[in-house]
Amino acid sequence: MFLNPDSDRNYMQEYQLAAFEGNHDHQMGRYFSFHYNLPNVSELGQTSNNNSLNNDGDYWFTYGPALFMILEGNNFYDTAAHSQFIEKALSANKGVKWTIVAFHQAPYSEANHAAANKPDDDVMFMRQNWTKMMDTYHIDVVMNGHDHYYTRTWQMYSGMPVDTVKTDTVTNPKGTVYITLDSGTGSKYYKYNTSADHSFSAVGWQNNQPTYSYITMTGSQFKITTYETDTGSIIDTYTINKK
Protein backbone atom coordinates (compact mmCIF):
# COMPACT_ATOMS: atom_id res chain seq x y z
CA MET A 1 0.00 0.00 0.00
CA PHE A 2 2.83 2.41 0.80
CA LEU A 3 5.17 1.59 -2.08
CA ASN A 4 2.47 1.62 -4.76
CA PRO A 5 -0.88 2.96 -3.48
CA ASP A 6 -2.18 3.62 -7.00
CA SER A 7 -1.59 0.92 -9.61
CA ASP A 8 -1.86 3.54 -12.38
CA ARG A 9 1.09 5.60 -11.13
CA ASN A 10 4.48 4.65 -9.69
CA TYR A 11 4.79 7.28 -6.97
CA MET A 12 7.97 5.87 -5.47
CA GLN A 13 9.72 6.02 -8.84
CA GLU A 14 8.83 9.70 -9.32
CA TYR A 15 10.14 11.14 -6.06
CA GLN A 16 13.28 10.83 -3.99
CA LEU A 17 12.64 9.07 -0.71
CA ALA A 18 15.03 8.79 2.23
CA ALA A 19 13.53 5.93 4.22
CA PHE A 20 14.56 5.05 7.74
CA GLU A 21 13.44 2.03 9.62
CA GLY A 22 10.92 2.13 12.46
CA ASN A 23 10.31 -0.38 15.20
CA HIS A 24 7.53 -2.07 13.21
CA ASP A 25 9.63 -2.21 10.04
CA HIS A 26 12.33 -4.00 12.01
CA GLN A 27 10.03 -7.02 12.20
CA MET A 28 10.62 -7.52 8.48
CA GLY A 29 14.25 -8.39 9.20
CA ARG A 30 16.61 -8.22 6.24
CA TYR A 31 13.74 -7.88 3.77
CA PHE A 32 13.22 -4.22 4.67
CA SER A 33 16.46 -3.22 2.92
CA PHE A 34 15.40 -4.96 -0.31
CA HIS A 35 12.81 -2.26 -0.98
CA TYR A 36 15.23 0.70 -1.07
CA ASN A 37 18.41 1.71 -2.85
CA LEU A 38 20.06 3.73 -0.09
CA PRO A 39 23.35 5.61 -0.56
CA ASN A 40 26.53 5.27 1.50
CA VAL A 41 25.12 2.46 3.65
CA SER A 42 27.49 1.56 6.46
CA GLU A 43 27.98 -1.76 8.20
CA LEU A 44 27.85 0.23 11.41
CA GLY A 45 24.55 0.29 13.28
CA GLN A 46 23.02 -2.79 11.67
CA THR A 47 20.35 -4.81 13.41
CA SER A 48 20.15 -8.58 13.30
CA ASN A 49 17.52 -11.28 13.51
CA ASN A 50 18.41 -14.84 14.52
CA ASN A 51 22.11 -13.86 14.51
CA SER A 52 21.89 -12.75 10.86
CA LEU A 53 22.69 -9.12 9.96
CA ASN A 54 19.85 -7.26 8.27
CA ASN A 55 21.88 -5.02 5.93
CA ASP A 56 20.14 -1.96 7.39
CA GLY A 57 23.05 0.04 8.82
CA ASP A 58 23.37 3.81 9.11
CA TYR A 59 23.68 5.82 5.90
CA TRP A 60 24.30 9.38 4.80
CA PHE A 61 23.62 11.69 1.87
CA THR A 62 24.06 15.36 1.07
CA TYR A 63 21.30 17.63 -0.16
CA GLY A 64 22.25 21.20 -1.00
CA PRO A 65 24.32 22.59 1.88
CA ALA A 66 23.26 19.86 4.32
CA LEU A 67 24.57 16.48 5.40
CA PHE A 68 21.83 14.05 6.42
CA MET A 69 22.87 11.13 8.62
CA ILE A 70 20.22 8.43 9.03
CA LEU A 71 20.75 6.20 12.07
CA GLU A 72 19.25 2.74 12.60
CA GLY A 73 17.27 3.43 15.75
CA ASN A 74 16.33 -0.21 16.35
CA ASN A 75 19.97 -0.86 17.24
CA PHE A 76 19.85 1.68 20.04
CA TYR A 77 22.25 0.06 22.52
CA ASP A 78 25.29 0.17 20.21
CA THR A 79 25.98 3.85 20.73
CA ALA A 80 29.66 3.39 19.88
CA ALA A 81 28.84 2.14 16.37
CA HIS A 82 26.55 5.08 15.63
CA SER A 83 29.12 7.50 17.01
CA GLN A 84 31.78 6.00 14.76
CA PHE A 85 29.46 6.32 11.78
CA ILE A 86 28.76 10.01 12.47
CA GLU A 87 32.47 10.71 12.81
CA LYS A 88 33.19 9.03 9.46
CA ALA A 89 30.31 10.81 7.70
CA LEU A 90 31.42 14.20 8.99
CA SER A 91 34.99 13.50 7.96
CA ALA A 92 33.86 12.67 4.42
CA ASN A 93 31.78 15.87 4.13
CA LYS A 94 33.77 18.65 5.75
CA GLY A 95 32.32 21.45 3.62
CA VAL A 96 28.66 21.16 4.64
CA LYS A 97 26.88 24.01 6.41
CA TRP A 98 24.21 21.96 8.19
CA THR A 99 24.33 18.60 9.95
CA ILE A 100 21.01 16.83 10.32
CA VAL A 101 20.46 13.47 12.01
CA ALA A 102 17.29 11.40 11.66
CA PHE A 103 16.19 8.20 13.37
CA HIS A 104 12.82 6.76 14.25
CA GLN A 105 12.49 6.86 18.04
CA ALA A 106 12.16 10.30 19.65
CA PRO A 107 14.38 11.12 22.65
CA TYR A 108 12.23 14.16 23.41
CA SER A 109 8.46 14.03 22.95
CA GLU A 110 5.47 15.21 24.96
CA ALA A 111 3.77 11.88 24.30
CA ASN A 112 6.49 9.40 25.21
CA HIS A 113 5.45 5.79 24.95
CA ALA A 114 3.84 4.20 28.00
CA ALA A 115 7.02 2.31 28.90
CA ALA A 116 9.25 5.36 28.54
CA ASN A 117 9.85 5.64 32.29
CA LYS A 118 11.67 2.30 32.39
CA PRO A 119 15.45 2.76 32.55
CA ASP A 120 16.03 0.18 29.79
CA ASP A 121 13.45 1.63 27.40
CA ASP A 122 14.80 2.65 23.98
CA VAL A 123 13.44 6.20 24.25
CA MET A 124 15.00 6.88 27.65
CA PHE A 125 18.24 5.17 26.66
CA MET A 126 18.47 7.47 23.65
CA ARG A 127 17.69 10.52 25.76
CA GLN A 128 20.49 9.62 28.15
CA ASN A 129 23.06 8.47 25.57
CA TRP A 130 22.28 9.44 21.97
CA THR A 131 21.81 13.11 22.82
CA LYS A 132 25.39 13.14 24.10
CA MET A 133 26.48 12.12 20.59
CA MET A 134 24.64 15.09 19.16
CA ASP A 135 26.45 17.38 21.61
CA THR A 136 29.83 15.83 20.78
CA TYR A 137 29.44 16.30 17.03
CA HIS A 138 27.60 19.66 17.20
CA ILE A 139 24.56 18.40 15.29
CA ASP A 140 22.20 21.20 14.25
CA VAL A 141 18.88 19.36 13.92
CA VAL A 142 17.54 15.93 14.92
CA MET A 143 14.33 14.66 13.32
CA ASN A 144 12.27 11.77 14.72
CA GLY A 145 8.90 10.04 14.56
CA HIS A 146 7.57 7.14 16.66
CA ASP A 147 5.34 9.10 19.04
CA HIS A 148 2.82 10.57 16.57
CA TYR A 149 2.75 13.86 18.48
CA TYR A 150 4.39 17.03 17.23
CA THR A 151 7.07 18.29 19.58
CA ARG A 152 9.84 20.84 19.05
CA THR A 153 12.38 21.24 21.80
CA TRP A 154 14.33 24.25 22.89
CA GLN A 155 17.94 24.23 21.78
CA MET A 156 19.22 21.35 23.90
CA TYR A 157 22.73 20.78 25.28
CA SER A 158 23.86 18.37 28.02
CA GLY A 159 20.26 17.26 28.42
CA MET A 160 19.06 20.77 29.32
CA PRO A 161 17.48 23.67 27.44
CA VAL A 162 20.05 26.29 26.48
CA ASP A 163 17.43 29.05 26.65
CA THR A 164 13.68 28.97 27.31
CA VAL A 165 12.80 32.36 25.83
CA LYS A 166 9.90 31.80 23.42
CA THR A 167 11.02 32.52 19.86
CA ASP A 168 10.65 31.13 16.36
CA THR A 169 14.06 32.38 15.18
CA VAL A 170 17.53 31.86 16.60
CA THR A 171 20.96 32.95 15.39
CA ASN A 172 24.17 31.01 15.96
CA PRO A 173 22.54 28.94 18.69
CA LYS A 174 24.30 26.52 20.97
CA GLY A 175 23.08 22.94 21.07
CA THR A 176 20.63 20.93 18.97
CA VAL A 177 16.92 21.26 18.25
CA TYR A 178 14.92 18.00 18.27
CA ILE A 179 11.75 17.77 16.21
CA THR A 180 9.29 14.90 16.60
CA LEU A 181 6.90 14.73 13.68
CA ASP A 182 3.26 13.73 14.08
CA SER A 183 1.25 11.33 11.91
CA GLY A 184 1.26 12.06 8.18
CA THR A 185 -1.50 9.53 7.48
CA GLY A 186 -3.86 9.99 10.40
CA SER A 187 -3.71 6.29 11.16
CA LYS A 188 -2.55 6.70 14.76
CA TYR A 189 -2.06 9.45 17.33
CA TYR A 190 -0.57 9.54 20.80
CA LYS A 191 -1.90 11.56 23.71
CA TYR A 192 -0.06 13.98 25.99
CA ASN A 193 1.89 12.23 28.73
CA THR A 194 0.60 13.92 31.88
CA SER A 195 3.08 12.22 34.23
CA ALA A 196 6.34 13.16 32.47
CA ASP A 197 8.63 16.17 32.70
CA HIS A 198 8.33 18.25 29.54
CA SER A 199 10.75 21.03 30.41
CA PHE A 200 12.58 20.24 27.15
CA SER A 201 9.57 21.23 25.04
CA ALA A 202 9.18 24.60 23.34
CA VAL A 203 6.14 23.59 21.24
CA GLY A 204 3.75 20.66 21.46
CA TRP A 205 0.71 20.01 19.28
CA GLN A 206 -1.85 17.24 18.92
CA ASN A 207 -5.15 17.88 17.22
CA ASN A 208 -5.65 14.37 15.80
CA GLN A 209 -5.12 15.64 12.27
CA PRO A 210 -2.46 14.59 9.74
CA THR A 211 0.48 16.97 9.48
CA TYR A 212 3.51 17.54 7.29
CA SER A 213 6.64 19.64 7.56
CA TYR A 214 8.32 21.68 4.83
CA ILE A 215 12.03 22.48 5.09
CA THR A 216 14.13 25.01 3.20
CA MET A 217 17.87 25.49 3.53
CA THR A 218 20.51 27.92 2.34
CA GLY A 219 24.13 28.23 3.40
CA SER A 220 23.08 30.54 6.22
CA GLN A 221 19.50 29.53 7.11
CA PHE A 222 17.54 26.41 8.02
CA LYS A 223 13.75 26.79 8.24
CA ILE A 224 11.10 24.20 9.06
CA THR A 225 7.38 24.91 8.95
CA THR A 226 4.80 22.34 10.01
CA TYR A 227 1.27 22.41 8.62
CA GLU A 228 -2.08 20.81 9.39
CA THR A 229 -2.85 18.84 6.24
CA ASP A 230 -6.62 19.35 6.13
CA THR A 231 -6.64 23.13 6.55
CA GLY A 232 -3.13 24.18 5.53
CA SER A 233 -2.84 26.18 8.76
CA ILE A 234 0.62 26.61 10.27
CA ILE A 235 1.22 24.67 13.48
CA ASP A 236 4.79 25.77 14.08
CA THR A 237 7.69 27.42 12.31
CA TYR A 238 11.33 27.58 13.38
CA THR A 239 14.32 29.22 11.74
CA ILE A 240 18.01 28.83 12.53
CA ASN A 241 20.35 31.48 11.16
CA LYS A 242 24.12 31.01 10.98
CA LYS A 243 26.53 33.90 10.57
Descriptive keywords:
alpha/beta; seven-stranded mixed sheet; four-stranded mixed sheet; globular
Low-confidence stretches: none
Largest sheet: 7 strands, mixed
- Percent range for β-strand residues: 25-35%
Count of separate DSSP helical elements: 3
Largest sheet strand order:
3-4-5-6-11-7-12
Structural class: alpha/beta
Mean pLDDT across the residues is 91
Oligomer: single chain
Q: Total strand count, please?
A: 15
What best-fitting shape do the alpha-carbon axes yield? Answer: globular
Verbal overview:
14% of the residues lie in helices and 27% in strands. The strands form 4 sheets. It has a 7-stranded mixed beta sheet with strand order 3-4-5-6-11-7-12, with helices on one face. It has a 4-stranded mixed beta sheet with strand order 10-15-14-13, with no helix packed on it. A two-stranded antiparallel sheet has the order 1-2. It is built from 3 helices and 15 strands. The protein has helices at 11-14, 79-92, 122-136; strands at residues 48-49, 52-53, 59-63, 66-70, 98-102, 141-144, 150-153, 156-157, 160-161, 169-171, 177-180, 201-205, 211-217, 221-228, 234-241.
